[in-house]
Amino acid sequence: MGWVQYKDVSIAISAILMKCVGIWYADNRFEQRVRNSTLIYTVFTIIFSVWVQAEDLYHSWEDFGARTYIACNILCLNIALLKIFILFVHKKKFLHLVEYMDKHFWHFNYAPNEQAIFISWKRISTYFICVFTFFTEASIMGYVIRPIVANIGQNESDRILPFTMWINLPWSTTPYFEITFVLQVLSVYHVGFCYICCDNFLCIMNLHVAAQFRILQSRLRNINKSRDDDKYQKLNILSTNSPEKPYDTFKNYIQQHQALISYCRVLEEIFKPIVLAQVLTFSLLICFVGYQAILADIAFTRRVIFMNLLTSNMCHLLMFTYSCDCLIRESTAVSGAVYAGPWIEMPMDKNGKNFRKDLQIILMRSRRPCCLTANKFFAVSLETYTSVLSTAMSYFTLLRQNSINVENT
Fold first, then answer.
1. Pick from 168, 172, 190, 173: which is nearest to 49 by CA?
2. Is 333 strand, coil or helix?
3. How far apart are the first and last CA of the chain?
4. Cβ(122)–Cβ(6) below 8 Å
């Protein structure tokens, strides 16, 4: 596919992560076998990690700090497994959306003003993806570095693993320790890939669709200019023939608007259960991570891990809600753009009357914004960001009070 040559850091990072998970294109049977094997390995790794953390939770139930620490890990593991399962169920639709973006969004010869719009939105997407990926990978790196630092100068019997194993084997002795350490490191990195790959592409899709709505607004405001610019007409997204009348151009833009709405519907169909799971777990996750980073009596290295993880979660939530909010705002702004067009200058002939009727339809349709919902319960926007943070602070207060009661008893 042509996207391979597309020089965009955010898309390149997200595509590599999707390959590591096993949900991506396959050009031949060998690649398809590799993808299937990778997906099986991904599911096995997450299930094994959940089992390890569940065992650790069972044996550490009396320790309140350990319970909150393990709860953070289990929440991340479960949400990662859910994302992979949903993407696997909707694999064909998801890859079709990526292919549509490649054809109509990423590799299109835009007019100069449209190119500027596209680049500005692409830059926002790159910032979000790079920052979110950096802090998530820094947190994962902390899980690996912490036991390495703790094992310096220790005897063989005192060595620790990144995650405690409760199977009756001599885990601290060679070669069990080295083998288990490598397996746990590979597992935690793979779980990290699963955790961020889906959200990266969701952010990219939301922001690029919002960019297309912004480009459509520019075209609707300048229908007369586009009619007079022969070079611009050759770049029309839905027609290779230069329309001779503004109404013909306007019909092409209506088709583009319909295509974007259809794209958002498929996007909503795929990601709505993931969005619901994200919103439900973010409050608990931020609460538990914040407790470990601020209040828990833990080692400095572990505190650094959770500070990175807290920053990653805050960036993750902002990226997630901001991209959904952009989709709402830009799809709604189409009504203002079409009303600001040259419809008042159109003559009252047949084309002029049809132009005004179609304009009214676009105005009515644009009042209902394209959005992503939490499984149809509510639309996600920046208001969701503040609501989640407010709920997380409430949970944090209860958790803090509970920890004080535990200490007093």
1. 190
2. coil
3. 63
4. no
- Beta carbons within 8 Å of 108's beta carbon, 6+ residues apart: 235, 237
For tokens 């009348």, the residue is 245
Average pLDDT over residues 194-206: 88
Task: Give the whole-angstrom CA distance, residue 215 versus residue 100.
Answer: 17
Identify any residues that bridge with 373 across adjacent strands, giving them in sequence order.
379
**Residues 39-58: pLDDT tens digits?**
999 999 888 888 888 888 88
Residues in a beta bridge with 379: 373
Between CA 63 and CA 72, with CA 69 as vertex, the angle to 5 degrees is: 140
Which sign, positive or negative, has the C-alpha torsion 186, 192, 198, 204? negative
Three-state DSSP at 243 gives coil
CB 320 within 8 A of CB 310: no
Alpha helices, DSSP H, located in 60-111: 64-89, 91-101
Number of residues written out for the chain: 409
The dihedral of CA 274, 207, 283, 49: what is its sign? Answer: positive
Among candidates 140, 215, 406, 185, which has minimal Cα distance to 296?
Answer: 406
Which amino acid does the sequence have at 102?
D
Residue that the structure tokens 């005897």 belong to: 155
The burial class, CB within 10 Å (0-12 / 13-18 / 19+), for 61 is exposed
String of DSSP letters for 298-323: --HHHHHHHHHHHHHHHHHHHHHHHH
The per-residue pLDDT for 224 is 66
Where do the H-state alpha helices sit in 90-158?
A: 91-101, 112-150
| DSSP 8-state code for residue 215 | H
User: For residues 325 and 344, what is the distance between their CA atoms, to the nearest angstrom?
Assistant: 32
The sign of the torsion formed by the CA atoms of 191, 192, 193, 197 equals: positive
pLDDT digits (tens, 9 = 90+) for 242-294: 334 677 777 888 888 889 999 999 999 999 899 888 888 888 888 888 877 77
Kindly list the distances between the CA atom of residue 92 and the CA atoms of 95, 307, 358, in Å, as whole numbers in the listed order. Answer: 5, 38, 34
Kindly tell me if the per-residue pLDDT of 316 is higher than 80.
yes
